[in-house]
Amino acid sequence: MKWVFFFIIIFLGLAVFMFLVVACNTQSKKFKISTTTDSLINSAGAMADPAYQKGAKLIAANDCLTCHILDKKSTGPSYYQISEKYPFDSGVVENLAYSIIHGSKGLFGPNEMPGHPAINYIDAKAMATYILSLKHEPELKQGKK
After folding, report:
1. Per the domain annotation, does 101 fall within a domain?
2. Which of 41, 43, 108, 129 is 20 to 30 A off residue 57, Cα-Cα?
3. Quick check: is 8 in a domain?
4. H helix intervals, 25-136
C-alpha cells in the first residue's frame, strides 16, 4: 500500500513538473513581419482587400508560397508579375484557375507549375482573382487618400 501511495506522489510530481516546463517554454514570441509574402502568410490573408481575402487565405493555406513570392520571382513568377501580365477580367480568372488546378508550363519561363487537383474550381477562381487584384492595389490606395 505504501508503494502505491509513493508511485502516485511521484507521478503527480512529474505531472506538475512537466506542466511547468511546458508552460514556461510557450511564451508568446513577437516577430517582425519582414516581407509582404510573410505578411500574407502570417495574417492568412487578413491584410488583403476584403473583396479578395478568400483568395489570399487560400493561397496562404495551400503550398503556393513554396514556389511563388508576392513581390519577386522565385521558382515561379511573383504574384505581382502575374497580375501585370494579364488583364483583370473573367476570362483570365478562369484560365488562371484552370492552370492552378491542372498546372502549366512555359508561361513564365521553363519551369513547370504542377497541378493542384485537390483545389476545387471555385477556390481556384478566388485565388486567381486575388492575384489579379494586386495590379490594382496601388491605384485603390491612392484613390482612398
Report:
1. yes
2. 108
3. no
4. 36-43, 53-61, 79-85, 90-102, 121-133
104, β-bridge pairs? 113
Q: How many domains does the chain have?
A: 1
Which domain does 96 fall in, by range? 36-144
Dig out the grid coordinates for 14 from the structure: 512529474
The predicted model gives 68-85 an average pLDDT of 88
Grid cell locating 42? 502570417
Return the C-alpha cell found at 137: 492595389
pTM for this structure? Answer: 0.65
Helices 121-133, 53-61: inter-axial angle, 10-degree rounding: 110
Q: What CATH number does residue 130 fall under?
A: 1.10.760.10
Eight-class DSSP state of 47: T
Q: Grid coordinates standing for 70?
A: 508576392
